[in-house]
Automatic annotation (TrEMBL):
It comes from Rhodanobacter glycinis. Signal peptide: none annotated. The keyword Isomerase does not apply. Pfam families: PilN (PF05137). Gene3D superfamilies: 3.30.420.380. The chain crosses the membrane at residues 226-246. This is Fimbrial assembly protein. Keywords: Coiled coil, Membrane, Transmembrane, Transmembrane helix. The lineage of its organism: Bacteria, Pseudomonadati, Pseudomonadota, Gammaproteobacteria, Lysobacterales. Residues 246-280 form a coiled coil. It comes from the Bacteria.
Length: 392
């Protein structure tokens, strides 16, 4: 188990370092503080900021307890004069009385060592050493300090001071086992659990932990299950909200598609009616224009009746679709019929087809005369006569 923990420790240190270097911790701390201010005062204690560190210091035969970052003493007691650590049951009672307003789950104790008992050394290391900082410093322990790794408890923290290209500054903090072990043994005898061993810096701590991993207390965290349950519930609610939102969007999209299809059908119907109206209007206009540009049969009959002499009569009068007119009949002087039709405004290009022959029965001349209807000039379309005439 310890081997696995040691193998994962560089990876955990790398993740922790990147997390602290990101802006997320500052943002989450600010956001959490703003949310807590919105709660009633009696509820704010339930949503504390997590670990509440208290600093324990030993000077001579006296122990003192302060809150991290504050100079006011919360409690103090003596070891006793018998050299055995005094009453082992008194110190936990004093701590409990001093920390009665602190939730046990959030309570953290750090043993602060005086700077005189700790060796601090600034190192310039290559950037590649960041991922295995503890191992690299362990190899350098003999050169950087007068002790071996087996003689000290040590920790390393990365510094923000500028360094040369390709390197960074780190601080080695070490204390001899002979100095720290008696203090830890005395606290264990008194029944005081310690979460960290650090160096005193004013009223606060340096920010390292010299406590051996095997001596770190195991704390029950009932809030963790609650937090996991709340996080799971939040994720489930988020997925539910997203699913409901997608369902509503899909329903709205389906409704819009149905409306679009309905409007498309109506639009097609309107387009069909518009096309039908245009076709009807075009047909009506075409017929009106054709009627206007076409010579009527009645006008042709009137023109022929007016032009032909009374001595001539027709047996057949025909007009085809191309405007070709056929006159078949008898007249006393058939040759003069061309002169009578010469100045006609409706009948033009008159000529005899075949020869003029006398009719022995009537004594008149039988003729067959062809002509064309004089159509008015139109733009692009070609006019034609309508209907076929018959004999008058």
């Amino acid at each position: 188990m310890s081997t696995a923990t040691q193998s994962l420790r560089p990876w955990a240190d790398r993740v922790r370092r990147r997390w602290r270097a990101s802006p997320l911790p500052v943002f989450l701390a600010w956001w959490g503080g703003e949310l807590r201010h919105l709660l009633p005062l009696r509820w704010r204690g339930w949503f504390g900021s997590g670990a509440d560190w208290h600093l324990l210091q030993h000077a001579g035969a006296q122990w003192t307890l302060r809150r991290s970052g504050q100079g006011e003493l919360l409690a103090s007691w003596d070891d006793g004069t018998d050299g055995t650590g005094g009453d082992a049951r008194a110190q936990p009672a004093v701590l409990d009385a001093a920390l009665r307003n602190v939730d046990r789950e959030d309570r953290r104790l750090a043993l602060l060592l005086p700077s005189a008992l700790v060796l601090r050394r600034t190192l310039a290391l290559p950037l590649a050493a960041r991922d295995n900082l503890l191992q690299v410093v362990a190899f350098e322990m003999d050169r950087q300090t007068p002790f071996t790794v087996a003689q000290v408890y040590y920790a390393v923290r990365e510094l923000a001071t500028p360094a040369t290209a390709g390197r960074f500054h780190a601080e080695l903090v070490a204390v001899t086992r002979g100095t720290l072990d008696p203090l830890l043994a005395r606290l264990r005898t008194q029944g005081v659990p310690i979460d960290a061993v650090d160096v005193a810096v004013g009223n606060d701590r340096l920010g390292v932990n010299l406590l051996p991993a095997e001596q770190m207390p195991r704390r029950a965290r009932p809030r963790r299950r609650l937090n996991l349950a709340l996080a799971t519930a939040c994720v489930a609610l988020l997925l539910l909200v997203l699913g409901e939102w997608l369902h509503n969007r899909q329903a709205a999209l389906t409704q819009m598609q149905a409306e679009v299809e309905s409007l498309r059908g109506e639009a097609q119907q309107v387009a069909s009616l518009r096309q039908q109206l245009q076709d009807n209007a075009g047909a009506a206009g075409f017929l009106a224009q054709r009627k206007k540009n076409t010579v009527s049969m009645l006008s042709l009959l009137q023109e022929a009746t007016t032009r032909l002499p009374d001595s001539a009569w027709l047996e057949r009068f025909s007009v085809d679709n191309t405007g070709q007119i056929g006159f078949q009949g008898q007249s006393q002087q058939a040759a003069k019929l061309l002169d009578t039709l010469k100045d006609s405004a409706l009948i033009t290009d008159a000529s005899f087809q075949g020869s003029i022959q006398p009719d022995p029965t009537t004594g008149k001349e039988r003729f067959y005369l062809t002509a064309r209807v004089n159509q008015p000039k139109v733009g692009k379309s070609t006019s034609a006569t309508t209907g076929i005439g018959g004999a008058p």
